[in-house]
Amino acid sequence: MPKIDWNSENTRVLCMLFAEQVGKGNRPNTHLNALGYTEVEKGFKEKTRIVVTKVQIKNKWDKLKEDFKAWKKQMLRQTGTGWDPIKKTIAMDDEWWKKARAVSWFKNLDIFVLHMSILLVILIIICVVLLILGHSRPWKV
Prior knowledge:
Elements: H1 8-23, H2 34-48, H3 54-77, E1 82-84, E2 89-91, H4 94-100, H5 109-132
Antiparallel strand pairs: 1-2
């Protein structure tokens, strides 16, 4: 299985494909169903010309969720986070980043905001789908 270059563009494509599959109802629980994964594999190849497997896709998605949880935990508990207006980055020392278990792309706010926006859209889609299916409190499902 060849290693995938998960640069910001490939990650963006993957997130958009996941959001599309959630919108189509191919995420009945915590992960995509077989059709969803097949569609993501096909769409990723069409958009990037890179062949990925279900395992690679799932591993990347699980890593993104871990990174988001770590970042959210640090930001909720952290005071004194800085902002470098020239570099347009979050200004924290390397020790803070190590503790956050954050990856280097968190330092670039533009990329980070894109990724978090995509995750938020996915969560909204899930809630809307659950409401349409008759769940009055989708966050308790």
